[in-house]
Amino acid sequence: MATKRDYYEVLGVAKDAKTDDIKSAYRKLAMKYHPDRNPGDKEAEAKFKEAAEAYDVLRDDDKRARYDRLGHAAFQQGGGYGGADFSNIQDIFSHFSDIFGGGGGGGGIFDGLFSGFGGGGQRQQQAGNSLKCRVNINFKESFTGCAKTIELNRNELCETCKGSGAAAGTQPKRCPTCNGRGQIHQSQGFFSISTVCPQCGGAGSIIEKPCADCRGQGVKTKTVRIQVKIPAGIADGSRLRIPNEGEPSLQSGPRGDLFCYIFVEEDQFFQRNGNDIVCQVPISVAQAALGTTLDVPTLQGRANMKINPGTQHGQIYRLRGMGFPDLRGGAKGDQIVAVAVEIPKKLSPEQEKLYRELAKIDDQNVSPERKSFIDLVKGYFN
Ligand SMILES: [Zn+2]
Ligand SMILES: [Zn+2]
Questions:
Q1: What is the number of the ligand closest to the CA of 159?
Q2: C-alpha 213 to ligand 2 mean position (Å)
């Protein structure tokens, strides 16, 4: 192998380039030299590997610092360059799955650009339609997780014609206009424009004698019941993807997905704030002043909570770890208990007597806050 090029030069970035710039520079090169775009081109393949190697080092702070200090020598012990082994193109796709979208799945920047990784540009079979549904759960179910059976109408392949849409004993015929491609290409100067075939509507085939059962549609609507497992901690408005529970593909592609939109009913006592559960607990004036212990409802049963003497209205207590589990594996939320001190609206004769006594004592033992307030008021009227 010839002398190695400088990694910064390979990616065409400055020595002090930020990680984001390095990533986008690599992305551009990966697109340019992608094997699906350059089938059989050995030079493109070498450039594709060279860029992957440079990116693997420069995206990693440790490796990059070592490279900055020692150059290629930093990785020469052991023969390889010290990182992942990219002798196989497939390894590059799996190594940088954040860029290439996880071994051929969705979500990568190359979606829609390339048919499949290393697949050499095969035509992909179109997946079936995805479906949406709404799932209502209550607050407790959102905390514990639950299983729900949902009923929905969806298209299933017609059993009579097995989805072909053609009557028994006949077969769909290859469309003569597009020769089965579903698209027609027209050249206009330098450009080649492809449009959906007008005769077959993109299907690539035409049905001369339609199946009587599905009237040539290939599908029939059926009511199906699906078990949906809802994870503990799910929030109102979340979307759950249930793979392969959408409609079947008519081109022997994969089924579509089912997307469940989760609606969580409001609770009378609890509210959700992030992963915390918030509630309000009323206590009496005497309890606030003297302190007490309370039984507080939680979604895991009753919890004993100590109220300190001198607790103020609106003061907040936390029951640690009693909130929602985190769906991404983070820390659990807390239960936040806000104390509401209730001032009695009506007094029994005995209560009134005691409150009047209390008032007398309060006048003799003025608190520092009240004293400064009284002084303030005096200052206004003198
Ligand atoms: Zn049919
Ligand atoms: Zn056609």
A1: 1
A2: 24
Spatial separation of the C-alpha atoms in residues 323 and 273, rounded to whole Å: 10
CA-CA distance, 256 to 274, in Å (whole number)? 32
d(CA 14, CA 22): 9
Q: How far is the CA of 212 from the centre of ligand 1 (A)?
A: 6
Q: What's the mean per-residue pLDDT of the chain?
A: 85
- Residue 98 and residue 105 in contact, taking contact as beta carbons nearer than 8 Å: no
CATH 2.60.260.20 fits 121-172+207-266, yes or no: yes
pLDDT digits (tens, 9 = 90+) for 233-261: 999 999 999 999 999 998 778 999 999 99
Question: 197 CA distance to ligand 2 centroid (A)?
Answer: 5
Distance 162 CA to ligand 1 centre (A): 6
Q: What are residue 185's phi and psi, to 5 degrees?
A: -105, 135
pTM for the predicted model, two decimal places: 0.58
Q: Where are the domains of the chain?
A: 1-119, 121-172+207-266, 272-377
Is pLDDT of 334 > 70? yes
**Token output for 316:** 């907040």
Indicate if the pLDDT at residue 379 is higher than 50. yes
CATH class of 272-377: mainly beta
* Among the bound ligands, the one closest to the CA of 196: 2
Nearest alpha carbon to residue 41 among 120, 112, 123 = 120
CB 254 within 8 A of CB 244: yes
How far, in Å, from the CA of 174 to the mean position of ligand 2?
A: 8
Looking at all shown ligands, the one closest to residue 199's CA atom is 2
Q: Is the pLDDT of residue 109 over 50?
A: no
214 alpha carbon, closest ligand: 1
**Ligand 1 center to residue 168 CA distance, Å?**
8
